[in-house]
């Protein structure tokens, strides 16, 4: 069932319940008032008749009938009857001479017990009133047809029925119209989304000027599209740069082998070519390994081997690792205010990836510093571990700071150094995978500081 129709039916159901309650209330109180009114009038008439009958020496039966016939009270087909204690009829009057009431003795007995009872005889409403004094015990029955009262109730009932059904029809038509108006922005948003393709990915959904829920939905979808566009652009640049980086050593290898095979050469010449090819193969192998690590760090943390990792142990292995890669590299560790609790130094993560991330940053710090020195500081707090890596190198220009974590991006001042431009990007993705953050501050000519913040493990 379409949402538009479902909203309309739900709206009609609510209106149905409301109208039913209003109409029932509007009918109930006038109906009750009319019933109470006819009861009161018939009871008063019964009391008056009983008092007249008690004074038989003053008012004889014929005089009482004349009084009854001359009394005007807007009631139709009046019938008055009186019964003594032996249930014998002692008085009878009717507007129509042939009209009479057949009263069951059970009603008379009930009236003698309760005093006054209200009942119906055919289309008439009646009251049985038991009157007693020292000398008289009679039951007076007054009955009449409330023509005007019932006519008013019928008129009210017809008006309420018409209003009820007219209200339901109006609610359905109005609900169908307004639900269409309500859902129109959804259709417009869907139409805008359908027009967004890979060739037209820069298009965005119109948010309108009204700050409502549809505006919020449009803004949210636009933000999603912005993130997707950034991801696609990053992927496109990554594929392009990776293809270039992979093709360069492959082209060099192919060219050297092709040239060396064009004619016979001496063994020494072949050795020179093989050494050059070997260097290119090592470069290609290192690039491939880096790309595999990058792909692993770009995945989901759920696919990693997660275990408790002590960050101080990872940091303490870095000085020796840097010495292996270059004997000139020097790493200084500074562990201030080490906590007594071991748990404050533990994070949940992958030890190999965390080691790779920090090693890449430390390697850059040593590589681009004249003294080839990096200072690592560790500070454990209540819920986080902060690692700062400082060098006194050439620094990074302010305009380039926002690009340094992009794959294959290299600062212009470091283009003469060997590398792929993947180290910082890989470190950034690994730290993000561990729900951490990396902040960088740099002053050209004075040095750079990277600050890594990782949440501690919750045991």
UniProtKB/TrEMBL annotation:
PROSITE patterns: HAMP (PS50885), HIS_KIN (PS50109)
Localization of this protein: Membrane
Domain Histidine kinase: 241-458
EC number: 2.7.13.3
Transmembrane segments: 6-29, 159-178
Keyword entries, A-Z: Kinase, Membrane, Phosphoprotein, Transferase, Transmembrane, Transmembrane helix, Two-component regulatory system
UniProt cross-references to SMART domains, sorted A to Z: HAMP, HATPase_c, HisKA
Pfam families membership: HATPase_c (PF02518), HisKA (PF00512)
Keyword Coiled coil annotated: no
Main location: membrane
Protein name: histidine kinase
